[in-house]
Amino acid sequence: MVSLQKGQAVRLEKSGGGSLTRVAMGLGWDVRKAKGLLGIFGGGGGDVDLDASCLTFDADRRQLDEVWFRKLASDDSSIVHSGDNRTGAGDGDDETISVDLARLPANVSTLIFTVNSFTGDSFDRIENAYCRLVDSTNGKELARYDLTGSGSHTGQVMAKLVRVGGGWEMKALGERTTGRTFQDMMGAILAAL
After folding, report:
1. How far apart are the C-alpha atoms of 116 and 105, rounded to whole Å?
2. How far apart are CA 67 and CA 56, in angstroms?
3. pLDDT at 24
4. Which residues have CB under 8 Å from 175's CB, separation 6+?
5. Which residues of the chain have pLDDT under 70?
6. Separation of CA 65 from chain center
7. How far apart are the first and last CA of the chain?
8. Which residues pair with 95 in a beta bridge?
9. DSSP states of the chain as a string?
10. Distances (CA, A) of 157 to 75, 171, 177, 182
11. Longest dimension (CA), the chain
12. How far is CA 25 from each of CA 34, 117, 160, 163, 193, rounded to the nearest angstrom?
């Protein structure tokens, strides 16, 4: 597993050789605990509804498709969203977007993964946020990027997968932005291409 910093990229390869066929981008987060007496007694946290999205683009930067909580599968079903987690409660990934790389249309050159707060909560209320890419055929974590960083932003362009030759590369982006949905963040998304 590779732990990426903002701007770093890693070539994705299957352990033991061969090309990757199926991956999953997991998103996890916790609600920051209140400080002082409220924190001692478990109060003040509340729920934060973060939403993961995946958008596909061709080599000419044209958007081809999107997968998010209102559209849980791409038109060709090669990308599938696990569904909306509205709390961030529990351990592990809170939302997952599965990608069948072998079934992606040949004109898809880039996949952009975003996260945003649909309710408008800022990342000041979030801790332990991350995205991680997993090889779905064996469960091995390939790369992880820590999204935690308080601020008034309500979204991030997390990472992108780019077709490179016959394989794929993941780049950690971490571009902070605002918006309740990926549509609100299109300026930052297009700049990340």
Report:
1. 26
2. 9
3. 96
4. 156, 157, 188, 191, 192
5. 15-17, 35-45, 85-91, 148
6. 16
7. 25
8. 27
9. -EEEPTT-EEEE--TTSS---EEEEEEEEEEPPPPTHHHHTT-S-----EEEEEEEE-TT--EEEEEBTTB-B-TTSSEEE----SS--SSS-SEEEEEEGGGS-TT--EEEEEEEETT---GGGEEEEEEEEEETTT--EEEEEE----SS--EEEEEEEEEETTEEEEEEEEEEE--SSGGGGHHHHHHH-
10. 22, 11, 8, 9
11. 56
12. 29, 18, 10, 16, 18
What pLDDT was estimated at residue 87?
A: 58
Those residues with Cβ within 8 angstroms of residue 140's Cβ, 6 or more apart along the chain or in another chain: 1, 15, 134
167 - beta bridge partners? 164
**Could you tell me which of 125, 126, 115 has the C-alpha nearest to residue 181?**
115
Tokens coding 138:
């064996």
Per-residue pLDDT at 40: 44
Amino acid (1-letter code) at residue 176: R
Give the tens place of pLDDT for each residue, 116-160.
998 898 999 888 889 999 999 999 999 999 986 778 999 999 999
Distance in angstroms (rounded) separating the CA atoms of residues 33 and 105: 43
Closest to 109 (Cα-Cα) out of 45, 163, 161, 177: 163
